[in-house]
Amino acid sequence: GENVEQHPSTLSVQEGDSAVIKCTYSDSASNYFPWYKQELGKRPQLIIDIRSNVGEKKDQRIAVTLNKTAKHFSLHITETQPEDSAVYFCAASSGWGKLQFGAGTQVVVTP
Amino acid sequence: DAGVIQSPRHEVTEMGQEVTLRCKPISGHNSLFWYRQTMMRGLELLIYFNNNVPIDDSGMPEDRFSAKMPNASFSTLKIQPSEPRDSAVYFCASTREGTTNSPLHFGNGTRLTVT
Fold first, then answer.
1. Of B114, B65, B109, B107, residue with least CA distance to B89
2. Cys-Cys with A32: which of A12, A36, B100, B101 at CB 3.0–4.6 Å?
3. Shortest CA gap A21–chain B (Å)
4. Using one digit for the tens of pLDDT, what is the confidence trace for B49-93?
5. Number of Cβ pairs < 8 A linking chain A and chain B
6. Contact between chains at B97 and A89 (C-beta distance less than 8 A)
7. CB B90 within 8 A of CB B19
8. Residue range A38-91, pLDDT digits in tens
9. Contact criterion met (CB below 8 Å) for B71 and B90
């Protein structure tokens, strides 16, 4: 089955700097790659997703890139703000909406 | 849209007791997923249903866990008997699944504590 690895496990950045989280996946059939943000005590919420026919997608301060050949995808957050502090999860899916999640990255943005 | 609704939000029970978690998916969604989240194991998929039919229950830890989806608007996850190691946050999620993937929406979760 699918295996998703996520790095780093923790990331501390200064407000205004950029944050990058990287994930790799194992199943070449995976074609959907969402990113979820989970604040403390709350549910994971989708922040952006990308499909295999696209190499990059951007939404305001966040962007995702996908390299299908290398089987890796990344989340980029620019101009970080304290409210970006949360745990971020990457995931991969080849169908049925069945997502395999990475282990998560704790992002801390310090003012 | 009320989103995915889970109940209860918190459940504290003693070891050996039966626990039932409930979920109402988003109206019109045809796939429902139960996830468990712990610090040690992260987000684990336990079971998922498509059109009320269980598709994959390979993530269910053991026979003490069972899940049902009697209709398109309701699902339960039952643990009997419960054990302290079952303590976790249990999330239900739903999506409209067709020929292409669609976003998965999570409920607010049930925090289960087994003492």
1. B109
2. B101
3. 17
4. 999 999 989 999 889 999 999 999 999 999 999 999 999 999 999
5. 52
6. no
7. no
8. 999 999 999 999 988 878 999 999 999 999 999 999 999 999 999 999 999 999
9. no
